[in-house]
Structure formats: structure tokens, C-alpha cells
């Protein structure tokens, strides 16, 4: 007998079917036994008139008859006839998979990760994550971007220095890429619009709810721009399309978190960083310390301001100071102490960093000199600006932070299948 | 004036338009000057009645009138009025971008990579690559797979040992993942069908045309299979759909290589590895040395046999010997010296490795013992088999090798934007 998927069952009322999946809930009531079975397409309740022998967590094959029942979730259930356990739990599960909430301690959540991921509420995080990737892949192509894959092993730790992981590469030293920055810029000179979904490695010794040491970055680079607002506008459009798709296709997962996708405004409001600092001090009586561009509390309050003032979950903070941005960031034409660099906040947390880049060789050399950056190991990148690089800019977006902010998760680690931090390298 | 993309020009005959892009060809003939401009959507010829001042490789903005001209590529050209060079080459390009073939030495091809990638024939490789990624992303979802991202930094070098790159991870040692093997198996226990597009790192000191030390692997894992043929059948279907899409959407790029997509048979032929070795020896008088599963020449001849016997560019080689496969490979139920492991060859080169995995804890422990594999550092993975893992299997496919074989490139490195080998870490 051929297998029927759960999402095909509504087309087979009265038929005998074979389903396969995992038993997520097992209940007994009167003489009846109820088993909720989940497969890759959904879940359905099977009712047996005697004990089915199935335990929570088992992988099962069940044959039975499809019954229409308006009280059932999805309006159908199966009258179970034969049940076979094809794989069972040799030991007791360390938690009850059938409970609505897992309520594990943070350590247990990650120590038992291969099992805790089976819980529907945790599955939902990674279904939203899957839809986010799908959205980015589809929408970026709709907008004329070519997908690229750039190297993660680098000869030199060039983009900052201290926060690179070092590798033993045969008889040499090498480094893990913090971002595809140099390569995506080069590729914007080839395909005009490029995007990459790739691993980023950050050797930052952080212990926060917003950092992990390995994450998946959604990058983009765009040539033939007029200014950095072009980059922001394309990002705005892309996010709008993605969020609509995820909202439609992910409704059932969002519901488990009692939330909906944040609305992406037609035009996300812009505020200069220098201005938001004044606003925050005046309105919320919070002063960001000198020499800091913005801190997490500042971001939170900027998000609050966006909501109160513009009814927006998003806000662009623009014109980051020259002293805080990397050497390749285009200085602001109006004020050389500021740059064409921006962050995008979602619900008071930075989810995107972007900028217009310097595309003129001479300007780049001068900016490096002013910053005291040495060209060693970057020649392949710097030379490209001798060869007709059009004006360009782009962004890097943290995929896991997006999911964290959408589902209002306490830590970004909850949005990583197997998170890596200073102390955690396993599972 | 708003920019018009090249692929929008056919809708604007007689109109004045502004185009932006790179000058790929510049020719003078009589008093006329011809400039082929490429943007992200295509290329078009612009005709000026005097010297435009544009040089090959420049980034330009041109205004002019759209003219229908049946002799022109795409049936349209632009009568150029105003030309502005927005970025030019400060030094001479190291090769002529306008020539049909670059004909660079291998070293120059990669040393000048940021520039050689701008050549249309090299661009075409990465347009096919982009379409391949697009195909995998779309088709895997159509087939019910969830996209996952698994960690590339591992606590232990567990899947073989010698070929791992070592990292300094804060005050610990760590390793770069060779494949997502353990994680995708765990995730098949969560979502039944999962796929990953991710970086794989191999510290193999190879100097061949078929190896790189960093590549992009197209992985999949499938639960609730009957046997490994289920895995092969799904792979067969997925490849068929992808290759059709790439053939349709990539026709212009394939044409530059005088080729078409290989046809994926409805059912790719299967031959047991032990049998193909006998066939190769008998038919082609080539003996694969004892103790080797198959070598590159053997693969080439297996590909020749597939073509001659089945008129197929593809062939599955199955039942790889137990002694050559990793400990997690399901032994063959008929012959314990063989496994449920297979390779898929395209035009005589391995592009996929796959197998059914052992899903029973006891069997896995016994197999490890027989192989002398220690459990240290793998506990998180091994323990999952105590918890109702359904029968499952999957594959890893080399994305760059696929493109190499499709376009018949001499080396897999030609299909990597910025390849990494023992000697090359830059650009």
C-alpha cells in the first residue's frame, strides 16, 4: 500500500490509507486511544478502539480509514486499524514531547537539542527560518540579484583584525571570514546585483542574548546606485515582499508564538544617528556614552520611538560616524565626520548593517591612510578599484536575529539549530 | 531620467532611454562608434555617430533613442546621444575583455580573478551556478524538504579524522566541518526531509582537477525510506526537474559552451560496484587495483559504459564495500561485506555520494566496534539513535563538480569564484 501524506488526506474521505510519522501525542479516554501523528506535511489524529501500543515519540506506520469529522483539527481524522512501531525510544525521553510548552532550562534546551528540536513549538522556529531563507532566495532573484558563494577561508585577517578565528591551513595560517564583504563588492562589479547566504564567523568573546560566534548572514551588494538611500529602498522593498510571504505561508507557526509578522512600511522612517541620540536623551532621559555609536538600550529606545512616532516596527539609523565605520565606508558628502553607513532596527534591535562603499581608488587610499589601515593582504581587493568600479553599496543581515525579533525569542541562540558560543561547541 | 534595464528596451521603441552598465566591446567603423553595454539584465549595442569617449571595461551611463533593427542581437539597438563614463580603468586591463576567449594561463586566470570574472564566458559559468542553486532551492521545497543551516565549527574531528582543518576556538581546539552528516541525520528525525546548501571544508592535500579544499555541498536527508533505492529515486527526480529548469533558463549561457544540459533519464541505470569493475576489465581492459573501490579512470570508463549501454550521461554505482564506507553506512542486507552506499556519476565523474544510514542503536554500536571507531566526541549524535530514529538516508552533492561536468570544464576550480587549494588562499 502506498503512503499517504497528512496533507493529502482531505482528498480521500472514506478511503483506507497508510500514514507514516512520529507520534506526538498519545491519550486514552474511555476505551479509546488517540494518537496525533506528524509527518513532513502536517499532523492528524488517529483514533483506535483499543490500545494501539504506540508511545509518545515513536516512529510509526498506521493504516486506517479516513473519516470526516468537523470537530477534528483539519476536519479529518483516521479510524486506526493497524499500527506498527518502526522505531521506538530505547530510553525515556528527557522531557514530555506532548506538552504544549517544553519549559526547559537554557542548558537542557541545548544539551538535549537533537530531541528538543522535535517539539512542535521549537520546530516552528525553524519552519519560520526555512520560510525566511525561501523568501530571501526568491525575492532577491525577483529583484535581479545573482546568487554567489564566496570563500570562508581567508589568507589574511583584514577586516578588523582581532575578531577572526585562526585556522591551520596545511603549513600556513589562515582565517575564517567574518563576512563576504570584499568578495561581494568585487562581484557587484561583475553581476551588478549579487546576494549570498553564507556562514559568518565572529571570534567575539560575547556573553549576550544577541550574539553567537557562528551565524548565517544574508548579504547583498548593488552597483550603479545613486547614494546609500538606493540601498535602503531596495532593502525596504525586499523585506516587504519577504515578510508578506512568510506571514502567509507561516501563519500556523506564528500562531504558536501568538504573533504576526511585523508590518514593513512602504517607506521605513530614517533618522540620523546623531539625531536619535538627542531624541532618546530628551524623550526617554537616556544618555548614550560619548564615543559609542549606540548601545543595546539606545537601540531599544530608538525602536520605541519608531513605534510611538511613526507606528513602525522598523527604523533606519543613518550617518554613522566616520570614526566607527570600516575604511571602505563612503564618507558623507555633507559632513566628512559622518558616513553613508546605516543600521536597520527591527523592534529595537539591529538586524541589518549597510552602507555605500568607496568606489574610487584614490579616495579609498586616502581614507585608509587617515584610518591607519595597512593594505597588506588586501591587495587583491584594493586593486579592483583601479578598474572601473561603479558606485555601489550593500548590506549584511543576521538571519537568526530576524527570527529572534519576529518571534520575540529571548535569545538569538533559540533561532540557531546548534548554536556556538564561547562555551558551547556541542552538540 | 529614470534608468531603463536592457531587458526592458524592447518595450520602448522610439523612446529616449537612460541605460547604465559596463562597456564590454568598443569598435569603430567608418565614422561610427559601436559600444556593447552589459547590465544585470543583458547587453545591447549602442551606436554613436562620433567617438563616444568610452573605452572597453568602463562603467557608463548612456542616453539615446531605442531603434528597432532586425540585424541587431535582440532586434534592438540604441542611437547614442550622450555618454558619461562614471568609472574608468586607471590602469590597462591585464587582458582584452572584448575577445571571445580569454585564453589566460591557469595562474593568471585566478590571480586576476576579480577581473577575469567580468568576461562573458566566465560570467556564464556563474550564471549556470546561480541557476543550479535556484533549482536546488525550489525543487527541494517542492519535494517537501525543509532548508536547514548546521554548524561548521565542530568540537571533534569525528568523521574520519585526518582531513579536518583545525581552528583555534578561544582557549580550545575545534575543527571545520567536512560535511553536515551528523546534523542532517538528526534533522531528518525532526522534519523528515531536510536539505542544506553549505560550505564543506576538506584538508586533503590533493593536486587534482577534481578537488578543492573548500566547496559548496548540496546535502539532503530523508526519513521513512524503505531502502537506499528510495534515496536514489528522489535524487533522480530532483535532478531531472533541476536540469530541465537550468536548460530552459540558462540556454544562452550553455550556448557559449556549445553544450546543452545532460538529459536525466526517467530511471538512471544502476550497476553494482563489483559488477562495474568486472565490466570495465572485460570491456575496456582496465583493471582497478585491489583494495580500491574505484579510481578516476574507472569512473571515466563507467561513464563510457553508461553512454554505450544505456545512452545515459548518468549512472548509479551501488553496494560500495563495507570496508570503504563510514561507520554510519547501512550494511547490505544481502551481503554484509557490501553496503547500501552509492555514488552517482555524471559523464564519468562522481558528483554525488549517498547511502542509507544505520538507524538502530545496537547495530550502530556493533558496526563501530567492528570498524574500531571510538565514540568520543560523537555522543550527541550516537545517542539520538536511542530515540526512535526512523529508517533514513541521504546524499551530498558537489555543486561545483556538477557545473564542471555540465560545461565540460577542465578543472573544478573554474566553477569556484575564488578557489582554495593547497597553494592558493588568495584572492
Write out key terms for the chains shown.
homodimer, 427 residues, alpha+beta, BirA Bifunctional Protein, domain 2, five-stranded mixed β-barrel, 11 helices
Task: Explain the overall architecture.
2 copies of one chain form a homodimer. Chain A is α+β, with helices and mostly antiparallel strands and 427 residues long. The first copy, chain A, folds into 2 domains: 6-87, Nucleic acid-binding proteins (OB fold (Dihydrolipoamide Acetyltransferase, E2P), Beta Barrel); 120-415, BirA Bifunctional Protein, domain 2. The first copy, chain A, contains 11 helices and 16 strands. In chain A, the strands form 3 sheets. The first copy, chain A, has an 8-stranded mixed sheet, with helices on both faces. Chain A has a 5-stranded mixed beta barrel with strand order 1-2-3-5-4. In chain A, strand 8 and strand 9 form a beta hairpin. In chain A, helix 3 crosses helix 5 (228-249) and helix 7 (273-284) packs across helix 8 (296-310).
**CA distance, first residue to last residue of chain A:** 38 Å
- Tell me which oligomeric state these chains represent: homodimer
Write down the secondary-structure element order of chain A: EEEEEHHHEEEEHEEHHEHHEEEHHEH
Fourth CATH level, the homologous superfamily of the largest domain in chain A: Bira Bifunctional Protein, Domain 2
Supply Rg of chain A. Answer: 26 Å
Number of domains of chain A: 2
The CATH class of the largest domain in chain A, by name, is Alpha Beta
How much of the residues of chain A is beta strand, in percent?
Answer: 25-35%
Order of the strands making up the biggest sheet of chain A: 6-10-11-16-15-14-13-12
Largest interface, with counts of residues having CB < 8 Å to the other chain, equals:
A-B, 95 and 95 residues
Amino acid at each position: 500500500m502506498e503512503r499517504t501524506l497528512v496533507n493529502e488526506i482531505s482528498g480521500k474521505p472514506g478511503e483506507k490509507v497508510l500514514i507514516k510519522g512520529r507520534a506526538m501525542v498519545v491519550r486514552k479516554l474511555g476505551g479509546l486511544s488517540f494518537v496525533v501523528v506528524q509527518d513532513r506535511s502536517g499532523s492528524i489524529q488517529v483514533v483506535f478502539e483499543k490500545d494501539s501500543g504506540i508511545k509518545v515519540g515513536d516512529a510509526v506506520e498506521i493504516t486506517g480509514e479516513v473519516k470526516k469529522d468537523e470537530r477534528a483539527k483539519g476536519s479529518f481524522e483516521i479510524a486506526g486499524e493497524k499500527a506498527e512501531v518502526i522505531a521506538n525510544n530505547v530510553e525515556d525521553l528527557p522531557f514530555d514531547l506532548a506538552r504544549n510548552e517544553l519549559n526547559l532550562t537554557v542548558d537542557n534546551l541545548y544539551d538535549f537539542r537533537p530531541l528538543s528540536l522535535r517539539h512542535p513549538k521549537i520546530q516552528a522556529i525553524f519552519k519560520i527560518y526555512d520560510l525566511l531563507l525561501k523568501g530571501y532566495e526568491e525575492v532577491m532573484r525577483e529583484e535581479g540579484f545573482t546568487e554567489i558563494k564566496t570563500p570562508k577561508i581567508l589568507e589574511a585577517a583584514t577586516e578588523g583584525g582581532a575578531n577572526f578565528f585562526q585556522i591551520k591551513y596545511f603549513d600556513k595560517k589562515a582565517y575564517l571570514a567574518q563576512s563576504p564583504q570584499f568578495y561581494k563588492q568585487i562581484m557587484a562589479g561583475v553581476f551588478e546585483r549579487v546576494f549570498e547566504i553564507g556562514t559568518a564567523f565572529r571570534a567575539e568573546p560575547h556573553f549576550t542574548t544577541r550574539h553567537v560566534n557562528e551565524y548565517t548572514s544574508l548579504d547583498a551588494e548593488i552597483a550603479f546606485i545613486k547614494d546609500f538611500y538606493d540601498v535602503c529602498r531596495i532593502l525596504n522593498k525586499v523585506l516587504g515582499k519577504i515578510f508578506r510571504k512568510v506571514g502567509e505561508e507561516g501563519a500556523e507557526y506564528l500562531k504558536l508564538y501568538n504573533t504576526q509578522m511585523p508590518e514593513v512600511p512602504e517607506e521605513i522612517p530614517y533618522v540620523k544617528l546623531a539625531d536619535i541620540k538627542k531624541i532618546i536623551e530628551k524623550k526617554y532621559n537616556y544618555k548614550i556614552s560619548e564615543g559609542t555609536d549606540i548601545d543595546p538600550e539606545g537601540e531599544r529606545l530608538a525602536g520605541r520611538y519608531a513605534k510611538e512616532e511613526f507606528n513602525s516596527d522598523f527604523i533606519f539609523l543613518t550617518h554613522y560616524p566616520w570614526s566607527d565605520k570600516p575604511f571602505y565606508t563612503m564618507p558623507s558628502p555633507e559632513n566628512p565626520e559622518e558616513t553613508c553607513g546605516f543600521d536597520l532596527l527591527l523592534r529595537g534591535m539591529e538586524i541589518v548593517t549597510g552602507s555605500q562603499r568607496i568606489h574610487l581608488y584614490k579616495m579609498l587610499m586616502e581614507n585608509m591612510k587617515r584610518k591607519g589601515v595597512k593594505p597588506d593582504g588586501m591587495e587583491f581587493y584594493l586593486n579592483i578599484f583601479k578598474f572601473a568600479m561603479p558606485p555601489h553599496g550593500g548590506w549584511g543581515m543576521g538571519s537568526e536575529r530576524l527570527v529572534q525579533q519576529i518571534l520575540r525569542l529571548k535569545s538569538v541562540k533559540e533561532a540557531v539549530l546548534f548554536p556556538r558560543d564561547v562555551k558551547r561547541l556541542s552538540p
